[in-house]
Design a protein that fits this description.
Bound molecules: NADPH dihydro-nicotinamide-adenine-dinucleotide phosphate
Shape: globular
CATH class of the domain at 210-364: Alpha Beta
Structural class: alpha/beta
Strand order of the largest sheet: 9-8-7-6-10-11-12
CATH architecture of the domain at 210-364: 3-Layer(aba) Sandwich
Number of helices: 17
Helix content: 40-55%
Amino acid sequence: MSKTNEYLQRFMNGVIKRNPGELEFHQAVSEVAGTIFPYIADKPIYHKMQILERMAEPDRVVMFRVPWTDDKGNIRNQRGYRVQFNNSIGPYKGGLRFHPSVNLSVLKFLGFEQTFKNSLTGLPMGGGKGGSDFNPKGKSDNEVMRFCQSFMIELRRHIGEDTDVPAGDIGVGGREIGFLFGQYKRLENRFVGVLTGKGMEFGGSKIRTEATGYGTVYFMDNMLTRAGNGFDGKTVCISGSGNVATYAVEKVNHLGGKVVTLSDSSGFVHDPEGITAEKLEYLIDLKQVRRGRIKEYADEYNSASFHEGRPWRVSCEIALPCATQNEINEGEAKTLLKNGCIGVSEGANMPTELAGIDVFQKAGILYAPSKAANAGGVAVSGLEMSQNSARIAWKEAELEKLLKDTMQTIHDSCVEYGERKGRIDYLAGANIAGFVKVADAMLSFGHT
Ligand code: NDP
């Protein structure tokens, strides 16, 4: 075994021992460490100062009880979390997730990833993540409001516009951010940019809602363009039907591609004629207003059919996983390749299992890891923070240009750090480009 692999193995054994049973966290750290150890092999200062070891340990983890009352008067009890992972280059920044699968492992993987992603944006933001095992699905607006208010009673002690600025994620959209911000303002008697993803009436930024989905598509477009190709006429499979998936469809349509699938946790719809702007409007009403299931799309349109499982067996040239972690396994990665897939851009966080990534990497297709491909959302969140601090509101066209330029800059950083014998390894490029800035800031701080 080479010296580098030996160090890597020893490092991962330590991570696994210190964080028993946290499989998603092990997976995220392993994916990063596999590319960072070769990079730092000839840079002993990072070893001496234990930089990666320190980056794999959150600054702090807060866990708290969130009691709330349902519409029948029953007292319910949930667990709340905020993982403040690393604030070397700016205040902690990262979303809140409300989903029954939320646990410490999931939030630690997300907070770890967020640190690298935020660094890639070029903006001064550290990494954090939080949330709860609360399930907003099937709850009334009043129940969601009471839960959000109770959650904020504790969370407010740990956040602040210069300390930690949460945003949305799975299960936390505009409705939840409104309830959370209203409660923070009431408890603290301060109107500050303590959350991003806010409504336009109370300090939100144009383009924030669309930014993650648009950014994921821009990143794919940048890779295609560099390879002398483009979106025009391409068939695209997208998973999910939430915030990220919805605006990914919109941007693919703008660029001349055809989206043929969308999904939710019950299954997927296949529409070979494409999800047009008109059909997307129906979907937005179905998912965001009526909070219905994806099957209803197939009931509405004759061209579409509903299937159980995930959409990756449908033929496509481009795949944009935009639902959740570990939604493409090794077999599904092979199926995508067999059916002609030439590019994957990850809108969701860590949607591809390690073995699936290996399949894409070995095949040499255009593979954009989530920390680069979905960084557009947090980039515009960073711009929302700037607008709030300066008490100004930028125009949509300015913000869309900033988002597009940011995705191009992230792409170019990945190329700079990921060039390997004429081929671009976007995974290594994203990890190393994200690592360098945070690591060098940590070196400046000494033993902190
Ligand atoms: P939403 O809650 O708006 O949508 C999530 C979608 O994914 C829904 O269609 C949901 O289906 C589906 N989904 C969730 N869990 C599962 C599961 N276990 N199996 C199958 N489908 C599932 O979330 P977002 O669109 O905001 O987030 C999607 C992904 O993008 C996440 O990985 C998130 O971390 C990532 N992301 C989001 C950003 C943002 O700005 N919102 C920024 C960067 C990354 P159902 O309704 O049935 O649960």
